[in-house]
Specification:
Length: 275
């Protein structure tokens, strides 16, 4: 299993406290989460530049003890960020298996496991178009699901690089999760878990299926100044944060199990069932 954290903001922000602060930050969760589990098999962080291109940093060290994670947390400023700490369940502890996974402008992370993946992977693997299948570099169930989801998205709109609406993202995830659930049923009494986050820097989607997931909508009024004789708000912003666990004492909302949310370009939050 793993832990994930992501946000979208109207302005570039640095959210070092929620990534690496003294509360229940992502780094804290990597040491020990709410269930007492550690996530020490590496970390990854994706942020988007002004040109919309994602930049990814990965490490095989635990986030809570890696100076690089602390440095990135303090310095990254962006409108869109996705971070992940890994507890390896499928695939070795290697950079190629470390989330986020990337294809063009899309990045993807997974909190969960597809049960008995090695024995049951063929239907999923065969359902990924050849050109996308050749992009898979690692051994994880998560990366395979990413490229399968991209194939559903591309089938709906023709190109994953064009503007994609909320409804299309929802449909692609509904199709993906329900097919993957049918291919990877419970094994030895353990259900498969499908908590995913995907973004292209403009729209962000998060699914909850079997693991905890919460989101926080934040509004900062900024400071007031005067420009040309009129009051003007500076440093004001809206943001939406998504996390496996609430990272602070703010009013986080729990995403219902077997459902999803999509944060659109205006940062409005849309909820939908995955069933």
């Amino acid at each position: 299993m793993c832990r994930l954290f992501a946000f979208r903001s109207t302005v570039p922000i640095c959210d070092s406290t929620l990534l690496n602060g003294s509360g229940n930050s992502l780094a804290t969760q990597s040491r020990r989460d709410a269930h007492g589990e550690s996530h020490i098999d590496g970390w990854g962080l994706a942020s988007y530049a002004d040109d919309g291109v994602p930049h990814i940093t990965k490490s095989l060290l635990p986030a809570f003890s890696d100076p690089q994670f602390g440095e990135v947390s303090r310095t990254v400023t962006t409108k869109t960020l996705v971070a992940h700490v890994r507890q390896a369940s499928v695939g070795s502890a290697a950079l190629v298996n470390t989330h986020p996974f990337i294809y063009e402008r899309w990045v993807f992370v997974h909190n969960g496991t597809l049960q008995d993946f090695a024995a049951r992977r063929k239907p999923l693997f065969d359902a990924i178009p050849y050109d996308l299948r050749t992009m898979i570099r690692g051994e994880t169930d998560s990366e395979c699901v990413f490229f399968f989801w991209l194939s559903r998205l591309r089938a709906a709109v023709g190109s994953i690089n064009q503007t994609i609406c909320v409804e299309t993202v929802i449909t692609a995830f509904q199709e993906t999760v329900n097919l993957v659930d049918s291919w990877f049923p419970a094994h030895h009494g353990e259900e498969s878990k499908f908590n995913f986050v995907a973004t292209n820097g403009r729209i962000m989607a998060a699914t909850r299926w079997g693991k905890s997931l919460s989101y926080l909508e934040r509004l900062s009024g900024g400071e007031m100044s005067e420009k040309d004789g009129h009051p003007n708000a500076i440093n004001a912003f809206r943001s939406v944060h998504i996390s496996s666990e609430a990272t602070d004492g703010n009013n986080w909302r729990e995403v219902s199990d077997r459902s999803m949310i999509v944060v659109d370009e205006q940062l409005d939050v849309h909820a939908a069932s995955l069933l």
